[in-house]
Amino acid sequence: MDASNFVGPRPDATGYADKLQGDDRIVLSVRPGITGPATLKYRDEEEILARQDDPERYNREVIWPDKVRLNREYVRNWSFWKDVKYIWQTVVH
Q1: 29-42 burial by CB neighbour count: b if 16+ within 10 A, else e?
Q2: Half-sphere exposure of 92 (CA within 13 A, CB side)
């Protein structure tokens, strides 16, 4: 079993994947994983959203577009060693 079984874009809330357009749809071309750069960056997402006046809007306008960007970059620049790094960061944090 290689790292790609564990690392990859995680599925977002229902309906968000349907909103991916153009180059952003590349994130749908890989198998979802349990960790990755967006998952690590937003590991405290619930706490971040709890501090917002309008959490749904903040997610829609800030977090989700950033996750898409991070996941798109992950797919385009994939490497086995980066996957190993993401797994390590997930385990030690």
Answers
A1: ebeebebbbbbeeb
A2: 6
Task: Tell me the torsion sign for CA atoms 34, 40, 42, 47.
Answer: positive
Residue-wise pLDDT tens digits, 19-78:
888 999 898 888 888 899 999 999 999 999 999 999 999 999 999 999 999 999 999 999
Long-range contacts of 42-46 (CB under 8 A, 24+ apart): 42/66, 42/67, 43/93
Q: For the whole model, what pTM was predicted? A: 0.86
Phi, psi for residue 35 in degrees, rounded to 5: -150, 170
Domain borders along the chain are 3-16+23-92
Eight-class DSSP state of 26: G
